[in-house]
Amino acid sequence: MSTPIVNRVANSALQVVDLEEFYQEGPRKLFAVVDFLTDGIVLHEQAFREKLIQHNWDDYQDCFVAVYCPKDVIIPQWASLLVVTYLQPKCKAVVVGSLEELEQQLFAEKLFGFDTTPYQDGLVMIKGCSNKPVPEQALGLLARKLTPIVKKLSYGEACSSVPLYKRS
Asked: What predicted TM-score, i.e. pTM, was given to this entire model?
């Protein structure tokens, strides 16, 4: 007589939070401000504004966009803000920064509204493996949000988790 296989993880009190579920679907695009500068380094206001007017903004429809300018190129703050005013009506979200900072912002927005009530006094694991990009910052935000309310917090997979926090 064989013993039935029992999924002990499914039957345990362990609650798993998968940050992949917070990933916002949609294309990501980088808007390079330097492409609109004279010789890629000088901002002439009139020429800059004309290039923005002539640009095809429909390319950003329903996208997540990062307005990026390298740190070694100095432009006035209003230049990136002007680009944002063109992008905002077309895209799902826009940030001034890199694609990495865009992803961090998207996760931060989702985590801000994350209801932690179901995890109160629980045994919680932040899922480690993911098929979608999850910024390290998002992991930190989630851990910060869960630590004050959970009984125990770990990271990884049920078969190989790393303990992070245990309430004394």
From this structure: 0.85
Q: 79-110 pLDDT, tens per residue?
A: 999 999 999 999 999 999 999 999 999 999 99
Helices H / strands E in the chain, number of each: 4, 7
Q: What is the mean pLDDT of residues 150-168?
A: 94
Query: Which residue range is the domain that position 131 belongs to?
Result: 14-23+115-166
Do 19 and 42 lie in one domain? The reply is no
- Kindly state whether residues 128 and 85 are assigned to the same domain: no
Phi, psi (deg, nearest 5) at residue 138:
-65, -40
| Cβ atoms < 10 Å from Cβ of 115 | 6
Name residues whose C-beta falls within 8 Å of residue 93's C-beta, 6 or more positions apart in sequence: 24, 64, 65, 102, 105, 106, 109
User: Of 38, 57, 91, which residue is a domain's last?
Assistant: 91
Q: Are 65 and 87 in contact (CB under 8 A)?
A: yes
